[in-house]
Amino acid sequence: MNKPEKPKHLISKKEMVNIIIDLKLISSSNGANKKILENKNIYSDDYVYKKYDIDSATFALSNNYYAFYVKDYDEIYTKVKDSLEELSQFYTKLEETELKEKKKQDSINAVRKKDSINNLLKPKASLKEKLEKDSILNPNLKNKTKPKKLIQPASDKASQSL
User: Fold this and answer.
1) How confident is the model over 100-131, as pLDDT tens digits?
2) What residues contact residue 2 under an 8 Å CB cut-off, 6+ apart?
3) Max alpha carbon distance in the chain (Å)?
4) Cβ pair 23, 44 in contact under 8 A
5) Residues 44 and 27: beta-carbon distance below 8 Å
6) What pLDDT does residue 152 have?
7) What is the pLDDT of residues 79-93, one digit of tens each?
8) Closest to 76 in 3D by CA, of 119, 17, 161, 125
9) Is the CB of residue 76 less than 8 Å from the CB of residue 14?
10) What are the C-alpha distances in Å from 144 to residues 38, 91, 135, 147?
11) Between the CA of residue 60 and those of 4, 52, 91, what are the distances in Å?
12) Alpha-carbon torsion (15, 21, 24, 28), positive or negative
């Protein structure tokens, strides 16, 4: 195998790591997510090339150059792998933290809801007393006072004047 010529615009190892990480992350998008990106005319390779201001030829030449030097290529991919594992661990911990917080909030909300329902079902003492004394709700109650007449009926007035 012939030693490849060093590309005129060789991408640095550090930038190759970042480019490959981005390519791996975007290419790992599945079904619905990939369709969303495609619907917005975002294709993984094109997006990454534009982000790093390179073209596919520059990437391919740099990738081939580093692939010939196995030690360099291994170094790049070890960093890619380590970075992706670190990202995975970070997001796994973040997800666990969010789930714990959600469970905590759900428990608090369940207690609040239960308390509010119980409070609605239990009338307050003064309201309960009023309901017990309500003659409409309890027709067996005897009304001890006679209602006052607000106005004298017209028929009463007519019979008094005669």
Assistant:
1) 998 888 888 777 777 666 666 665 556 666 66
2) none
3) 137
4) yes
5) yes
6) 57
7) 999 999 999 999 999
8) 17
9) no
10) 82, 74, 11, 10
11) 12, 14, 31
12) negative
Q: Which two tokens stand for residue 14?
A: 């550090």
Helices 13-27 and 70-121, axial angle in degrees (round to 10): 50
- DSSP string for residues in 41-59: T--HHHHHHHHTT--HHHH
In this structure, how many other beta carbons lie within 10 angstroms of the beta carbon of residue 101? 10
At which residue do the structure tokens 């007035």 appear? 157
Residues in the chain, overall count: 162
Asked if residues 26 and 44 have their Cβ atoms less than 8 Å apart, the reply is yes
What are the CA-CA distances from residue 1 to residues 67, 68, 70 (Å)? 12, 9, 13
pLDDT, residue 1, reads 67
Residue 8 tokens read as 């005129």
The C-alpha atoms of residue 17 and residue 88 are separated, in whole angstroms, by: 16
